Task: structure prediction
Amino acid sequence: MSDEPRDNPPQTSRHPVGPAQHPQHAHSGAHALLIAGRVAVALVAVIVLMVTGWEWSIKSRADSGILSRSVNAIVSGDSNVSTASGAPGSAGGFQAENILLLGSDTRSGANGDASNSDSSTSDGVANSDTLMIAHISADRQHVTVLSIPRDTWIDAPTCKQWDANTGRLSGADYPVSPGDQWHINWAYSVGGPQCTVRAVQDLTGLQIDRVIGIDFSGFKNMVDALGGITINVCGPIIDRELQTVVDKGGVQTIAGQQALSLVRARNVIGDTDSDLARIRRQQIVLSSILQQVTSAGTLFNPRKLDAFLQAFVQNTFTDNVTIDDLVALAQSFGTLDPSRVTFFTLPTVPSSSDDGALAVDQDKAPAIFDALINDRPLPGEPAAGSTTPHSSDSTAETATSAGEAASGTGVTVDPASVKLTIVNATGRSGAATTAMDELNGYGFAVTDKDLQLADVSQPDVTVEYAPDNVDAALTVAAAVPGATLVPTGQLGSKVRLVLGKSFDGKLTPVSPGVTVTGSVSATSGTSGTGTATPTLSSGELPAINAGDALCA
Result:
């Protein structure tokens, strides 16, 4: 909910276009279905590469394939990434890692076939309609996979433009204005893999360490290399675009093309949530593939293993991925059972600002991001040392020591550089808008989209921030007399000013480069709604464990 908005708020860019100037708002018909499943097998291939033993020729051939298809995607030094981690490394000296898995809808090579009846992207424009973050824990006890729905509504990142035909970035930024918002899958059409990384890092606060993308011909080839996959289907699956995908329920073996249709199907008769239902099917298919590919029948069959891995490396693009990297991950894991891989979907709600878009569920998502940033298991993941999943309530614990660790002294920065959100928790209409107007007169750069209205009021004025962003927080606090600093581990580069009932409307100019000291609270921050930081407990976040025998 927003603070009392202006009569004519700035319009968002709802239909960004790629370099070829083609609208990217929606996919229709077969085109929307072709791009869903490609990324799915990338996760399985990564895990297989981590957990299997290596015969030299297999490793050599796979390494050659990966290196020949590398891209420029990793974004380091991103101010949106939170560096406040509660678990920087394990006792074994390992670091947590985040691998971004994505797919694109280009139509080059074999991707021009495979039942593709839509050629609208042959002109160099492409989207990424499936996004997954694979978080590998520092203790190497679990892998958390978070799917991000393609229609998630996000703030538009600033990215270099790219050409999907050449795979090259230009030197020019794609033009965006303050307040512009996109579906997250548009980032790929504007700036390719690198822009998608920026969008994901901005959304989650997570540093993406490696990137792997895969096309749908690769998906088919990998499934066929296994001789098909065995999967339990809940019942017949009939899609309005793909027609009959599976004609009956039960345990059955399906080949590459049918598996591809299963993870692409988005308009299944009986589904009520379209893309979210498709994501669930993808996760269950991935679980089945993972169980099969880590079985003795594949691991001890060099010809089958080689065919599977070659199908992967010849149909992917990567950044910061080599076989040696993945072998090192394998050695750090030891043995990874499929039951230690758990799938989640980013919680969303229907967007109030764009028909058909999904807004991030602010009651649940911040706790997920905070857990991943701090390398804590989510509810439903296995605990360290356990052999079966359990319902963990780890995210129900807030960072109670954050206030003790944060410094209340620092140097003010340029107000225009502060990414500030203002929350009206006064119980009085228009307080955030009035504060925005005056603060902007002092050099801040707050827009209408940065205003929020709390569901309940709070008594005091607080400034919430990540502990490593104290200078920006002190800059805000210096402009708001009486504000208390409240450190929290989930805001990254953003600062949240919450105006409580005691706010008297008095604000003051602030100059950069001034050493100031603020009053620091020992309690954790709020969610921007006047309530405690969102937490999750068992049952609130649906999970699919790769070791379970669920039906698709």
In short: Residues 186-204 form the longest helix (19 residues). Residues 2 and 452 are 4 Å apart (CA to CA). The two ends are 36 Å apart (CA to CA).
